[in-house]
């Protein structure tokens, strides 16, 4: 099967569950070293980078003896200015201490890549526009609205289910 993908076109799941929805970057507000920060969660990034101006503003000590060459930011290879240890706070009380690279960024105070998200137990739910933290705590991504109303109750199924096409399964809900 070959498909010619057109700009703005939706197929499969997205065509029926989020028609016409345009997906933006996965940004959320958190804190770095107790200072409000715009965080870009990038599942395509192997490393995390904190903006150098922001890092200095929040008192980070930058180790300039270590540098990292990154590709994927602009057309040319990008070299970081050093690395630092940061304190990332999400959902008000979930705190992570983490080593990140320091470099010049625009549009956000930090890019948090897979080197942060996997050990932190964070995943992106782009269909719902949320950042899923451990314990199914969810943070709404910046500029997103839920696709459903407030009457929806998220559930977790404690057993494997195989539901055949056209069939249904009843699951008891516990409070």
From TrEMBL:
Pfam family, one: gag-asp_proteas
GO BP terms in the entry: proteolysis
Alphabetized Gene3D superfamilies for the sequence: Acid Proteases (2.40.70.10)
Signal peptide: none
Entry-linked SUPFAM superfamilies: Acid proteases
An example Gene Ontology molecular-function term: aspartic-type endopeptidase activity
CDD domains cross-referenced by the UniProt entry: retropepsin_like (cd00303)
Recorded superkingdom: Eukaryota
Protein name: Peptidase A2 domain-containing protein
Organism name: Phytophthora fragariae
